[in-house]
Amino acid sequence: MSLLSVDELAVTFGGRGMREVNAVSGVSFSVDEGQVVGLVGESGCGKSVTSLALMGLLPNKGVRVGGRAMFRTGRGETVDLLTLGRSALRDLRGTQLAMIFQDPLSSLNPVVPIGVQVTEILTRHRGLRGQAARKEAAHLLDRVGIPDPTRRLKEYPHQLSGGMRQRALIAMAVACAPRLLIADEPTTALDVTIQAQILELLKELVDDQGTALLMITHDLGVVAGMCDTVNVLYAGKVVEAAGRRPLFAAPAHPYAHGLLGSIPRLDAPRGERLNPIRGSINDTIAWQDGCAFAPRCDFYVDECLRGTPQLAALPRGADGHDVRCVNPVMTGPPETTTLLDKPPTSSEEAAQDSASDGDGKGPEAGAGTDEDTGTDSGTEASA
Ligand SMILES: Nc1ncnc2c1ncn2[C@@H]1O[C@H](COP(=O)(O)OP(=O)(O)O)[C@@H](O)[C@H]1O
Ligand code: SF4
Ligand SMILES: [Mg+2]
């Protein structure tokens, strides 16, 4: 069984007399131990609401949450994160589950020195106090690349740069070696050179600790550089789920295909126009009336408005390549795609290593990861 298995997660906002908003309406995916799983989509598609629901951080009032999110704890129990009581969830957060948010400044308490904020976690979850807690806090800051950690511990969040604040938050998130780390656009607020350093750091930490990472992003470059499997979200539903390589080699959902086609490339002929997806996420129809992407879709056929398309295995696709579309794109990647040139993720490297062990069995019989499909995908189709 997967470490986390999310099945038909639905989140609806709207209290009495308010218009209802179906922020997330049937999101299913899974995360295996040590895996890096991407949740990607444009702004407003439900990425943050999904992560907040998993962490139990949605407000109590005016929100309805449905579905299941089964999480296997370090004690061998399986719990549903969506129905677990507040105090049980609080116990899981930190030791088992941790989250890094987009904006490090608003996630840190501005009037409390960094050191106090880090040592509080060490005291609460690891029972460390006094000198031992301060020593471990300095060690953690050092580990995430913050120079002169003993001095930095005495400083307030506003005295640190944006990149250092995000590093401090990562130190707090990994302080108890959680089994699952959820990173919600952790680099969006940072400039590009710092972004690359933070992603590298996250990768190192998940490799060292065996932590699984749910990487939430709107940036396909981040997905291409890090994720083993990818779930593409559109208007609150997963519309395509696949291993990283099959997704980038042959995106099948017109939205995923369009996302890849709209990435600028340096070697394009001068004056060549970008190919953006037309319209915006507001040009949508309700899923119960058909495919929400229909108003923007170049592959539209009449069948698209005959009920909600279901997430189903792609005909002739790699194992675990699922798509929610009645007329998927079967022509391979758009010409503008460049991201496949990225180096393989660690699990793909493992697959390549096992393929070259000379045991003659090939990657399928090795690490359980297929170099062509690039995944041992635990991604589940939802129906
Ligand atoms: N507190 C809220 N009340 C009403 N609607 C909300 C609330 N929070 C988020 N939403 C709506 O839920 C949808 C998904 O939001 P969000 O998960 O923040 O998107 P993303 O993180 O993908 O940019 C959006 O349409 C947003 O307007
Ligand atoms: S179901 Fe139809 S409208 Fe929706 S993405 Fe597929 S082809 Fe386009
Ligand atoms: Mg968000």
From TrEMBL:
The UniProt entry, under CDD domains, shows: ABC_NikE_OppD_transporters
* Annotated Low complexity bias: 346-357
Provide the protein's localization. Answer: Cell membrane
Q: Major location, coarse class?
A: membrane
Question: Which Pfam families does this one have?
Answer: ABC_tran, oligo_HPY
InterPro entries in the cross-refs: AAA+_ATPase (IPR003593), ABC_Ni/Peptide_Import (IPR050388), ABC_transporter-like_ATP-bd (IPR003439), ABC_transporter-like_CS (IPR017871), Oligopep_ABC_C (IPR013563), P-loop_NTPase (IPR027417)
Q: Which domain of life is it from?
A: Bacteria
Q: What Gene3D superfamilies does the entry give?
A: P-loop containing nucleotide triphosphate hydrolases
Which residues does the UniProt record annotate as the domain ABC transporter?
4-260
Family per record: Belongs to the ABC transporter superfamily.
Name the chain's protein.
ABC transporter ATP-binding protein
Q: Which organism is it from?
A: Streptomyces johnsoniae
